[in-house]
Amino acid sequence: MKYSIGVDLGGTDIKAGLVSAAGDISCRVVLPTDVEIGGPKVVAARIAEAVRQVLVNAGTAGIDITPKKSESTSKNPLQTDDEIHEIGVGLGAPGLIIAETGVVHFSPNFPGWSDIPLVDYVNAELAKLQPTKHAAQTDTHKKYTPILRGMDNDVNAMTLGELHHGAGVGYKSLVALTLGTGVGGGVVIDGKVYHGSRNTAGELGHTIVEPNGRVCGCGNLGCLEAYAGAKNIVERIAEKIENGRNSTLTAAMKDGTALTPRMIAEAAKAGDELAIKIFAETGQYIGIALTSIAHILNPQIAIIGGGIADAGEKLLFEPIRKELSKRAMDIPAQMKIVKAHLGNDAGIVGAAMLALERSFK
Ligand SMILES: [Zn+2]
Known about the structure:
Blueprint: E1 3-9, E2 13-20, E3 25-32, H1 40-60, E4 84-93, E5 96-98, E6 103-106, H2 118-128, E7 143-153, H3 154-165, E8 174-179, E9 183-189, E10 192-193, H4 225-228, H5 230-242, H6 250-254, H7 261-269, H8 273-297, E11 301-305, H9 312-327, E12 336-339, H10 346-357
Parallel strand pairs: 1-4, 4-7, 8-11, 11-12
Antiparallel strand pairs: 1-2, 2-3, 5-6, 8-9, 9-10
Bound molecules: zinc ion.
């Protein structure tokens, strides 16, 4: 079976795993990113270490990751099982990523990084692992050379994961929204992630939904992120409570407890009218943004993930669909709106797909 290794690089953790062609993850590893200890080369070394540990775990678990002859990328007719087999690695990283060249142009999670050739750095670190027999113990005759073959923005990677193994299976054109601290987006056209002319396509969180609205992290006014990001949902309900609106969350807020979207969702599910209204408004703003997106791109499906999406059908998805059907023209209004399937695994699965899709060599 064809395997690859997916690495999800975050500001705090590096998550990695062995991903099968069916999209199943095994041999997971989580390491601290250690960004505060050193610069990009230290982070690259941590990524390589995570990959090494995944391979060691695979050896310990007795998983045979050797590609079959027909799957081998080396196409060497003389290859025997004593030779080194390549295994593809894919990396999802936060920020503005130049996918074709493997460069991190800028990343809010890594202050000071500017046009970092991260793929080269990681491959230099991975090369140092040779000729260690990572598969060790149970499979000592086999050697694996991990090579980083693809890197993309983390949200594009998640979008790719959902396309191949999640809610997007069977579709060729889709958009994905991740509702977390910020609001990320990804666009798939004709089965491929669309990057735009200079790699900034898919910033769906910065679709304007109120011309003179709330201030967004990007500096603009009225972006979707300024309404549907976790911090902003909390701010909106806190302002209303401070202005005297009744809510079951009032006591917690007065005690100094930091509200979270989960607490607001729980209050809403227990019947708190203000909390219900906040989610209905959030859904309405997402619906407004998706109306524009549906008119521009006419995707088959919009996949919505991230922690906020856990608020669920009634609180969030119904208001989104209602807004789309109210505003969009007949055909774009038929875009399906569904919850993401892969949850936190989308990053690793999607990164592994990058290893299969692209090659820098
Ligand atoms: Zn913005």
